[in-house]
Specification:
The chain is an alpha/beta fold. It has twelve helices and five strands. A five-stranded parallel β-sheet has the order 2-3-4-1-5, with helices on both faces. The two termini are about 20 Å apart. Residues about 230-234 have low confidence and may be disordered.
Amino acid sequence: QVTWVFDEGKIIETSAYQATQEWLDEACSSPGIWVLLGEPGVGKTFGATHYALRNRIPYITPPPDRDLTVRRWLRYLAVHLAPDHNPNDDPYYLLCDWAESQPLTRVIIDEAVRLRRPCLDALRDLHDRYPVTIVLIGTSELERKLQHYDTIVHRVCGVWRVSPLNTKDIEALYEVPRDVAATIYSRTGGNYRHLALLIDRLQRVPTTAITTGLVNTLADRYILGRPSKNGKEE
């Protein structure tokens, strides 16, 4: 992954970050299955990990294992949610004990699209039995997957789609003229990863030398794909 070169103090002031934090506040204050969506590079993981750390909420990413069985998934959850357990104990009952340990238990699961239906059904079963808040994070691929799982989709309490940075955010983050900020947005779609590629090169020239023409030249060289009018790549 491209190294982040952004000022976190400024990122947390962007409209997309603030809106995501407000939605997570709502999601994590009541039991249910919640879904946080966003295309790669819009900052959904950045915002969710910040929220999890600040509120001491377990943040789990399933292993990239195509043959992940339910038992292995439950064991993986138990290791992270109940680290002091006896490894010989049944992982499902360990998770039940974890769910009963406090009035509201919460967990955030990134890359949830890696979970097959039996693994998602195990989460759904915990949700049905205990006041558990489960936030699933992923791209539109996760959304399409969940729509085919009737036992899951009807239990989703809310969905939030993380927006990319807008021109105003870019202008504030980099302190560039509005026309330059608009060109940066048109070439990156407000995507952090594309921004990182572009800003890394722009930081090597004097601020006064940054023009819309320079932005377009660098974008042609270093950014794969051209954003469409709605900010997504064509």
